[in-house]
Task: structure prediction
Amino acid sequence: MLPDQNLAGLQKILVVDDNPYILRGVKQALEQEGYAVVTAVSGEEALSLIKKTGLPHLALVDLNMPGMDGFELCEAIFTFSDLPIIMLTAVDDEQTIVESLDRYAEDYITKPFRPAELVARVRRVLRRVGNFNYTLDPVITVDDYLQVDFPERKAIVNRQAVNLTPIESRLLYILMRNAGHTVTNHFLLNRTWPTEDAYEDRLHTHIYRLRRKIEPNPKEPKYVISQWGAGYTFPASSHP
Result:
């Protein structure tokens, strides 16, 4: 048994495609491996599902869909999170593949696909990005003082709703996804501004603003903790 298969039953995957045959095939392949799978036939439905049921651990996204296409869905998701995404599409244009991998995707799979290869790539991405340390509910409870609603870009701080900017929300998602581990400044810069030349001063400014919104005492932070010269750590969940 592969090490990450112990977590498979806890990991939820969102599959977004307007082709019902593709949805059925992907769902069957992933459920056979023990993953929980939810499906959507459009970008709009995918966002609605995320708001109702919480973020998944990973999303498989088609590019060409009516209404909101795959790139637009990724843009919307990245305004509040850094959700790992695999593109699953018939588009095999080199420029599209490069743009997808540069801006949005952890991997790119072209149709038709082999189910065993699809599962292996999903497993590899999940193993690389890790398992979200907190329960991915619509509103994630950190403790009695702090809860986070990523799709609405809000933190509930001491029972008061506080709006987060897209960058603050994304930074918080990355830190909570890696809770209990130091996330380096370099990693945070690359994930938050993947197509820009960003520097640590810019990162520290947004961390400072995030702390002012969510910390009981921003001068002595308990959630976004500095690891001097390295990066930042968010405390691991105390729940099993």
